[in-house]
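G., before I forget:
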Amino acid sequence: MRQGARKAAVAITSITAVAALTLAGCTADPETSSTGGPTPDSTGGTDGLITDAQREEALNTPTELTFWTWVPDVQDQVDMFMAEYPEIHVTVENVGQGLDHYSKVRTASQAGSGGPDVVQIEYQFISSFAQTGDLLDLTPYGANDIAGDYVPWVWNQVLLNDQVLAIPQDSGPMGNLYREDIMTAAGITEPPATWEEYKTAAEAVRAKTDSYISNMAPGQGAGWLGLLWAAGVKPFSYDGAENVTININSPEAKEVMAYWQDMIQNDLVSVDPDFNDEWYAGLNSGKYAGWLTAAWAPVFLSGAAADTSGLWRAAPLPQWDASSPASGNQGGSADAVLATSENPIAAYELAMWINNAQEPALLFNTQQNFFPTQISVLEDPVFVDQKNDFYGGQEVNKLFADISTTVDTEWQWLPFMEYAYSSGNDTFGAAVAAKGDLAAGLDAWQAALVEYAEQQGFTVNG
Amino acid sequence: MNKAIKRKQQLVAYGFILPFFVVFATMFIVPLAYSGYLSLFAHTLVGGLKFVAFGNYVRAFEDSAFLFGLGRTALILLIQVPIMLGFALFFALALDSGRARGSKAIRLLIFLPFAVPGVVAVLMWGYIYGQNFGLTGQIARGLGLPPTNFLSDSLVLFSIMNIITWAFVGYNMIILYAALKSIPPELHEAAEIDGASQLRLAWSVKIPMIRPAILLTVIFSIIGSFQIFNEPKLLVELSPTAIPQGFTPNFYAFNLAFVNQDVNYAAAIAFLLGFVIMIVSYVVQLSMQKKEHRS
């Protein structure tokens, strides 16, 4: 149970977890760091790839690696790695979570020393770190060899400009968790298949019970973007250099938000902030009869709302077009190698092995309760056929494994997601909280993003 | 005393204060100079570092987020500080009059909130303000009233003012109370013999006598108001959309540095904030001193 709560903390983070850092502790490097790291081309095989001989040598040389991650109990996977490669010694350090972690990675990276070799990084922040040249391109180390092991949309998340920048660890395709008892009380027997049905169901829930069909947290930027992702909207793109596309107020995005504005203004969904005590209480008390959320949430919820065990069920997201089901992703992490690493081969092997080798990778799913990214695990009966008592014995893993295949593969992020989330909170999020004009909120968000991007020297395409 | 000995004594004296200056220079002057230096550059994600002279400062004057933050601080100064100091003065005078029973216990109780660490206090108030499951929400529901969202867009500033008042009334009261205690008792006695009431005594004798202490509390409060950080930083978790990035200038500087990756602009904002505090404090001090001369 406890693990559930920590698990969510792992996967969500987004903009919520920032520890207080003093300004005095922060220094900016006057030089822009864009260290390329050791280039394997000069020493490697003829095709630029690391040769087996080099790999053998690196893995049999006594080496010290540092690994920054906030994944609980990851030491177990690292111990397996050290047993496999006894010459490599890995120190796991948890330097914080979310923005706290990232600001330390940035500082170390810009200083050029004192940083780790391997870092945990959420998919949504990969391009932010790639833009500043902090991440090592893993293709020369053989990362392309494992591309086929992963669900295509997940693998696409670690790619930028044909470079593999991290090894996937977990993911969060989105679905709909709901209270069956409350839905039944409202006269709804089947989970809504379309958004239209969802609205009808929401009206019934409001009319016949004291609940809301779900809570749409105004500041949950990653969740709102996940819903756009599921609707096939592509608000962002980045070419890996200086060109960004920002289109958060496109007609398609506004259409999705018009639906939600209608729901919010008719009091069919609540708009409470999430992941605080009030919200937890709301999940337990039945104020919220559902939650549109990611694949890491089922386990998290069974810890956060333990009193309601057996009452919940899982379903796919309602659809815009029921004939071609689609979903988005919210959260999930990968492990990357920093460009400043002095032992890139060993560092790559660490990032790759713990996430790709069967034994440690499976442990992430059974012990840390991560939602898998490898096709083999997603099809493994041990994982898929698991019945979950919290969901009345439903095979929740199977459901989300199916959803994972419907996630749009082409979603991209901006290379400054920290700002994108905080400005989104101040503009769009504020409009949600005020139950106001969401289209105007998107316009304000767009304006803030464009202004920031231009001020930061990017070329912005509408 | 001959010159050689005097010289030696002076040297020894400098030796004694040297550690202070070393710490002062390395911990205060150097970081200050360094951030002043940083504030003259602009770092962009594309293009890197450029010298922009006072460009960051110019940008700040056109930055609505920063100006709104200053505006909120000004509101706190105009509304919260007078209320807080009014209460502090009232309690100090009441305790000093010696007419309240159990004054020691009361003094301690009023001072107690100041002893609660700021972060803990904000977390506690965050619970009290909770609309659904917090204390005020439960009480309202118990009375059959609709619960108020104290952390909404329109109320959050006043909720924060309330927290600050709660935390600092006792602190200011102690300063004023100590000053009241140092007034020679002959003055009270003389006034009382002349038939002055307690009110008259407070207004015409005590308050004028502790004017320097009042000035001190005003200056402290001004500096404190401009430096508000804990409250928005912690309450933003509970009410993310009611507290924008630039809620207070200090909070804005933090967000600029650690969210927007704009350390240089953050340094400029921090410097500007320092100047604003200096100017406001100076103006207040000057105007209060003028009054003193007139009276």
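The domain at 63-294 of chain B is CATH 1.10.3720.10 (MetI-like fold). Chain B touches chain A at residues 31, 34-35, 38, 41, 43-49, 127, 130-134, 152-153, 233, 237-242, 244-245, 253-255, 257-261, 263-264, 266, 270 (CB under 8 Å).

More on Monday.
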